[in-house]
Amino acid sequence: MLVRIPGRRKLLLGLGTAALVGAALVGTAGSGSAAPAAALAADSTGSDSVPEAIRVPPGNQLIAQFAAEGVQVYQCTGRAWTFLEPIAALGDPGPAVIHFRGPSWESIRDGSLVEAATVASAPVPGAIPQLLLKATKTRGTGIFGNVTYVQRLDTAGGLAPTTTCKDGQTQGVAYTADYLFFARG
User: How far apart are CA 177 and CA 105, in angstroms?
Assistant: First the structure.
């Protein structure tokens, strides 16, 4: 079934255009990674600030970290809002990654991609939960080629609307988060 999301095409085109323009302005930054692993924040395999349930298993190292801005898209089904998909741009500071249904993350710099499935979540008052996701598929040899785990941390916003709705209606709710990507180390 084809679902039309008003404004989604404009949002995706806007995010894609911004990402491509940002990549052109920033360049490929050498290997195309967000930053050298040593320059990133301490990995969260054992960090006290990360809830135990969503910590990355030992043997995985942080390879990239990006701040995200986007929307969580909800659709009205049976007169209730249900999650449909995320749409976000991740940057370091300029756009570098597009996040979309799957959930998937694709580098606009090297074309690599990772898809993942949720393993665990940790609630955040007033926001979408923090997540631990395990990679289910990767593509390419770039930044996401060897990703094993993804964390969504420091979430703000993105909760389902609380208003009444009509079946088929969609609504995007703004959110921000930090995404951390890990590979076997």
Answer: 14
